[in-house]
Design goal:
This protein is mainly α. The chain is 73% helix and 0% strand. The radius of gyration is 19 Å and the shape is elongated.
């Protein structure tokens, strides 16, 4: 594709971004509040950013649509549904891990590493439990941990990847370990550049 054509597409996507970003964040926030009982604005922004990454990678579909804004709203809806489903899966897995660990005859002493079982540290497990089982928002947890939300999100993502990979190997879960997100795959294809 020629550079002028890519510049045109970039301007069109940017125009949609400027016109609809705040409305899409509000829409994502509404969906998350209604369906996941969370009002974390960081999660809503994450969903919209993921939707725009998908829009960029599927720009032909986006601009073939008679209503590109509607296409974006549908994409945000799908991203939020996937986020909720992933959160529910994590909550179920954490409950399984907690149940499996609580029924063992030997319990590690307080503060001991659960890596003895090939999973994650006690501190990391507690962080995931507070986020997914207790329903804390990224904003609340970041404030409590004295981190910014992006740092917390990156930390949680690393923990989940390591946890899922190890737990999948141990328990042979039906899901393979986490794959790269659509955003990460898209950035790789584009050479890491930003919109």
């Amino acid at each position: 594709m020629a550079a002028p054509e890519m510049q045109f597409i970039a301007r069109e996507v940017e125009s949609l971004f400027r016109a609809h970003y705040s409305k899409l964040v509000w829409y994502a926030q509404t969906l998350l509040t209604r369906n996941a009982q969370t009002s974390d604005p960081g999660r809503a922004e994450e969903a919209v950013q993921e939707a725009f990454a998908i829009a960029w990678s599927k720009w032909e579909d986006l601009f073939a649509s008679p209503n590109p804004a509607g296409w974006l709203y549908n994409t945000v809806n799908n991203v939020v549904r996937n986020m909720i489903r992933a959160d529910q899966q994590w909550a179920a897995r954490l409950l399984q891990a907690q149940a499996a660990l609580s029924h063992q005859p030997f319990q590690p002493p307080p503060g001991a590493d659960l890596e003895l079982e090939g999973l994650v540290s006690q501190e990391e497990l507690e962080l995931l439990k507070r986020l997914y089982l207790e329903g804390m928002t990224y904003e609340e947890l970041a404030a409590e941990e004295n981190l910014n939300q992006n740092t917390l999100a990156a930390r949680v993502r690393r923990i989940k990847l390591r946890f899922q990979k190890t737990y999948w190997e141990i328990e042979n879960f039906s899901d393979p370990p986490c794959k790269k997100s659509d955003t990460a795959q898209h950035k790789e294809k584009r050479g890491g550049s930003k919109l």
